[in-house]
Amino acid sequence: MVTVLKMQNICKSFVGEGGGEIRANDNITFTLKRGEVHALLGENGAGKSTLVMNLCREPDSGTVILNGEKVELHSPRDALKHGIGIAYQDLSRTLVERHTIAENILSLATGFLLSPSAIEEAIREALVEYDLGELDPQMSIWKLSGGEKQRVEILKALITNPDILILDEPTSMQTPLEVERLFSLIETLKAQGKSVVIITHHLGEAIRISNRITVLRGGKVVDTLDEVRVEAMKKEPEKGARELAQLMVGREVLYDLERKGLQEGPIVLATQDLRVNNDMGVQVVNSVSFKVRGNQILGIAGVAGNGQRELVESIVHWREATGGNIHLHGEVITNKPIKEIRDRGVSFVPENRKKALILNMSVRANLMISYYADTPGLFVDREAMIKKTDGLIKRFSIETPSPLAPVRSLSGGNRQKVVVARELSRQPPKGEQLLLIAENPTFGLDVATTQFVRQELLKMRTAGAAVLLVSSDLTEIMTLSDMIAVMYKGKIIGVLDASSATRESVGLLMGGVVGETSNVGEDELIEA
Ligand SMILES: Nc1ncnc2c1ncn2[C@@H]1O[C@H](COP(=O)(O)OP(=O)(O)OP(=O)(O)O)[C@@H](O)[C@H]1O
Ligand SMILES: [Mg+2]
User: Fold this and answer.
1) Which top CATH class is 3-249?
2) Which of 14, 51, 53, 402 to mutate to test the pocket of ligand 1 (most atoms within 8 A of CB)?
3) What global pTM score does this model have?
4) Which of 84, 186, 243, 410 would disulfide-bridge 79, Cβ 3.0–4.6 Å?
5) What 3-state DSSP class applies to 307?
6) At the top level of CATH, which class does the domain 267-526 belong to?
């Protein structure tokens, strides 16, 4: 097969806080052949996004060779002009929230299609052609779910019909159905002789979709697995995934979680007939009642966009509850000030991590938020605080050149780790249990960190915390939860005891199919 793209001896460094050098790409050579899907894997911070960014921003050294010719690419538009469409990972940088889908696409594609109406028409056609589902071109970006934004980003990369498509974590927020659609799209593109680079933390997906796989670690290429090796992995994907994980981290990754049977504790959180609107004023949580006990993980399963986001946001009062009640430790906290709720020992890992971080502030400062509230007494022991935050950086292996580096400079996954580390390490008020609300807590995290975070969630459960886990990842829900509630169109349509639930039973409920066995334990869960 012909090589369409070669990135040769690429070096890209960043200056860290205190002047230290971060070698994000250290002499990387990467090739892409015509008609192949090439997966790019590596831990959070391995340098994957940086490598891709060299196609729209000059590397420090090294060459980019496109169809045999050396090129210099300075901007995303440059890349597009050369037939390279890139769906970037950090959507907060590439999509303008206040603008519509059409405006976002127009701004990039100016010069190739001129009028807004022509763009809208092109978007509608492309959505059908690429089977990317429904999206209204006139919808503003801020109104979209994470998954929808990812689809806009993919569309933006595809709409100029590039020869090379680069997808940086395109599936992290997609439902299984959307992932299937994207994969058949990739197959179609491949059949047309196009080439695709895909970055993902889902190793099974990588094995399934790709022809070759390159693994990065610490800014260097560890290995490129050729077609023969990837083909062999397709036959034994689980074994393959373990091999890949080992290549990524350089040691064996622990796959088995330790999960003890526990006596359930007192009720920590209970909602009653809770009703919540979405950003457009439409009621998307319709009379939801449930409770979560100490020593218990209640998993809320469901296809993203069925009210889960609004539900959890209303509990922490990031969003108004329009009806019903929320009880914490038996007291009504509905629409109470955010700080008050937080101070009563409510931790929140939101899917939108940007909202939980102050990007321009240091890693340490971000980890310290709420330390004051959690520490009794008038005086804050600075030394202890620094010791604690430095300990968290180590324990959660947050890759940062220094505790003083701004969070903005961290890779996507490492930013997420900052939020998780902070929220999972909070102290509940004396004599009470912590309530941890985790919304897709492992999305964007590499395999090893995902396992680590899941183990930490289980440890919190053992320590007595009540955990409300919202996840669109069925595996995550199944492996962690004690009880599983499935949300569909704003309602909890079924509650299952996790020990007897199957992927099929939960999957059917997620699709809105209510069967005979779906209400096991519902009374136990709902009667307050
Ligand atoms: N603009 C920047 N300024 C400073 N450091 C940066 C910048 N961009 C990336 N880095 C650093 O370069 C390294 C590689 O980051 P990169 O975003 O390429 O990782 P990644 O493999 O894409 O990780 P993830 O899976 O978390 O997305 C990280 O240590 C990151 O902190
Ligand atoms: Mg990245």
Assistant:
1) alpha beta
2) 14
3) 0.79
4) 84
5) coil
6) alpha beta
